[in-house]
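Hi D.,

Good news: the full-assembly prediction came through. Inputs first.
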Amino acid sequence: MQSYLEKINQYISGLDKETIAALEQISDIKTYKKGDLLLKQNEVSSKSYHILSGIARKFFIHNDKEITTELYFEQDLAFSFESYTLQTPSKEYIEALTDVKVSVIHYHAFQDAKQKFPKLTTLDLMLVEYYSIWLENRLFQFHTQSATEKYLDIVTKSPHLIQQLPLTIIASYLNISLETLSRIRAKIS
Amino acid sequence: MQSYLEKINQYISGLDKETIAALEQISDIKTYKKGDLLLKQNEVSSKSYHILSGIARKFFIHNDKEITTELYFEQDLAFSFESYTLQTPSKEYIEALTDVKVSVIHYHAFQDAKQKFPKLTTLDLMLVEYYSIWLENRLFQFHTQSATEKYLDIVTKSPHLIQQLPLTIIASYLNISLETLSRIRAKIS
DNA sequence: CGACATATTGAGATCCATCAACCAATGTGG
DNA sequence: CCACATTGGTTGATGGATCTCAATATGTCG
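Then the structure:
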């Protein structure tokens, strides 16, 4: 997986100048404040946000409970996949968890660019493949791991999550209650 | 989602003869008997199986328990996504649940074909997008639904599952125990 | 300081898994 | 074609993981 990200980055580095120029031309730098919503529920996700700095999350509300589906750090690509791909209303919100700086590309601009620069289709494919594998692994987690195991997993594999995010968000990302998470932490240390 | 499948099928219908011929040239019809393994754990998933008839499933074993991750019916595409994409050993098995007839395409043959027929890259992208959305929705299920809700969901949305598969498989697909599923069914009817 | 968000801890309830016994249908070898 | 094994499903008893509700503590910021 790590190496697949490298492969993607290599692919980007190897793009011709025209393709890169086309990408830059349709990109737009924006900033958001902590707490701002980059995408609201029922809105169509018509832009992709490449995180340049800061942290964001994607979440939805079910039975008055917030469930975090993805956390975004520097270099990540944020958007609601289903909404973006089908151009239908989003079930999810995207929220800035800190002040955030992003590079924005509009859906339609990117679709057009793919027509003119076929290498962007290949890039798109690689990115979606990467996301699919990530999704598969997350499903695998929910299929096999207990609350404690899920927590230990991010402690070892993604310690930056724990250092930079409130437990409320972590719990909602692991789909366990804040209380359970608190108890797990007490027992472990 | 339904309509996205239609869009994909339309795209295939609209392909030029050369592209279609190239696809057919690298396809191979094969049959498997009920119980046969189309892919074994630790094997690299080097072929995709387009199901022409019959039923198959993908599963892995965790703590001596089989967990079914996907069910394949006519027209579905069967392979272990991560293993196929990264060409690394598969965590999962693919098993024929009935006698099965498939059209097989080798990974490398398809990669080559994409080089020569760029429309296949677009097709590949659409298929992976479809799979990502499917994965997102499955994750959504596991995040939000109880055992009973998951069961009712397939009763209403995929009744053919219940008609054609033993409860053991259904339970393992919903990630609940066979006993729990049996009790849910008893309570409902 | 006061107010609001964040985290901890306790008690009780709930969902579901596990273990075990049992039943029904199917099929196979002698 | 019977006897018995195998597969698939049901039902009961029990326990564990985790949720919910509620009270309390800690932290942070205007």
